[in-house]
Each structure stands twice: as C-alpha cells, then as structure tokens.
Amino acid sequence: MLSSFDVPKGSHFNSHLKAIQDMQAQLSQGHIDPLYETVFESMLARYTEIDAVVLACTELPLAINARNSPKPLIDPVQCQCEAAARFAFSNDLKASNLIRPFGLS
Fold first, then answer.
1. Would strands 73-74 and 53-54 be described as parallel, antiparallel, or unpaired?
2. Average pLDDT for residues 56-84, to the nearest whole number?
3. Measured between alpha carbons, how far is 59 from 27 in angstroms, rounded to an integer?
4. Percent of the chain scoring above 90 in pLDDT
5. Given a cut of 50, is residue 26 above it in pLDDT?
6. Of 14, 38, 64, 91, which residue is least crowded by CB atoms under 10 Å?
7. What three-state secondary structure class fits 36?
8. Strand stretches in 11-56, DSSP E
9. What are the CA-CA distances from residue 50 to residues 11, 32, 47, 72 (Å)?
10. How far is 24 from 32, CA to CA, in rounded Å?
C-alpha cells in the first residue's frame, strides 16, 4: 500500500500526467469531451495499489466523478466547502471573532 506521500512512478505515470494536464487545459477552456471519462477510467484502473484519487484541479470533476471512477475520489474544493460550512455553523463561531481580523468593530 502506498503512503499518503507516495506518487506512482514509471513511464506510464509520466504519460498519464501529461494526458491529465492536456485534458485540464481543455476543460479549463470549456471543452468537455466524453472521451475524457474513458481515458480517466482506463488510467485509474492501472493503479491497483492506490486507495483513492485526489482531484487536485478544479476542472477534473468535470471529467471524472464517483459515477465513472473505479476508485474513490477526493475533491479538494468539496472538502474545503464542507469544512467552511461546518465552521460557519459550529457552536464555537462568534461573529465578533470574524469581524476583528478585518479591522472592524
């Protein structure tokens, strides 16, 4: 099993990284090709030793999601939004603590 800091190596990893970067560039321009789902599925199927995939780019969820991924996905934007909502609705939140850092009283 890989640790949280291990990154797969090898020629197929480098070609996959390049493919992901190319897809990300297209996705960021609004070009969503249904073929991207198939490409991601194929890539992820090769990494049998990983437990999950971090979608470390905001565009990647446009091409792969829980419906079409053979591995669990971690979407950092979703994680940040959920953490912000938990913080905002926590009992420890005090409006005065939010205002002071901005120089307001």
1. parallel
2. 86
3. 6
4. 1
5. yes
6. 91
7. helix
8. 53-54
9. 17, 26, 6, 10
10. 10
